[in-house]
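Supplementary notes for students who missed Thursday's class. We covered one full example, reproduced here. Read the sequence, then the structure, then the short commentary at the end.
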Amino acid sequence: MSSSLGPATTACAAFRAGIVRARPSEAVATFAPGDAEPRPVFVRELLGSTFGFSGVGRLVALTLEALEDLSTRVPLETLGREAGVFVALPGFSDDAGVEATGRLGRQVLARALEGLGQSWPEERWRFFSGGSAGFALALDAARQAMERGLFETCVVGGVDSRTEPGHLSHLLAERRLKTADNPVGLVPGEAAAFVVLRSRGPKTPAVEITSVRLGYEPRHRGTASRADGVALSTCIQDVLGGGTAGKGEVVFVTDLNGEEVRAWEWGCALIRLRSDGVLGADAPFWVPATSFGDVGAAAGALGACIANHAFLRRYSPAPRIVVVMQSDSGERAAFTVSCSGTPERGGRT
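Structure (token representation):
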């Protein structure tokens, strides 16, 4: 992982402790009514390695640092020989679509690997857009490829930066940033994160992604109506399976980002899950954006890393963690991360 809070172990511990590392944007400021001086717009940027970079170069720096963190756990050279690579990237506002996403992905991944002295075969690379649900799309494709026997190992990740000056100006003009006169806005962030999936072998992994479900919400941002939570709750219900999840059986990791539209849909989804008997009690939910900011296409990968860390460090309050994603463009997704044994509570960070 690479983020404003550092690599995976440091960042997950910092998130659990509620640590925030925000700084004012050097490119964008705002005026609240009655202000005589501009007020800063705060962002959650990766410090150091992204300094002076923008556009593709910034995504390369994020990806390089995340892969470097991954290399402390898994040899990158070995992964390159055997793994398929599935990566979620920022979407495009025009109709450039799949081809543009592929070109961007090849640029970013090739340069990051070159910086690490690695060379992975490009024919194994796949790239996805879809906003914060992009990682779930990549994850679903990777799981299907493994089920078909195309790969025994897959690297799945997401990378995005929402701190670019042009993007900040757009969000400010749309009144989507959290400012003094807009408390229900988002705080832009940036991150990259990768997980390694392996087919079941003699040694069952301690932490597994057990199910993925995708959906689509027609009442997404930009449409005339508010989302009613049906698509989101259906994804969650599918990954939870039959029966009722009681107290202490599940915790959610969401991509809530401070905006009212996402909170409204999340609330509607929870009401539906309770009324349908899927949730038998209030379930805790974690909001990574409180520490990392809104990290766009990296949100799902960030959630997967947080869930993995919670199990490995034995502080998950439940045996299942459901990561939930609500993209601005309508994609909805959920996946379940579970541990082969019951997690111990109150473990070390």
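Commentary. DSSP finds ten helices and twelve strands in the chain. The longest helix spans residues 97-115. If anything here is unclear, bring it to office hours.
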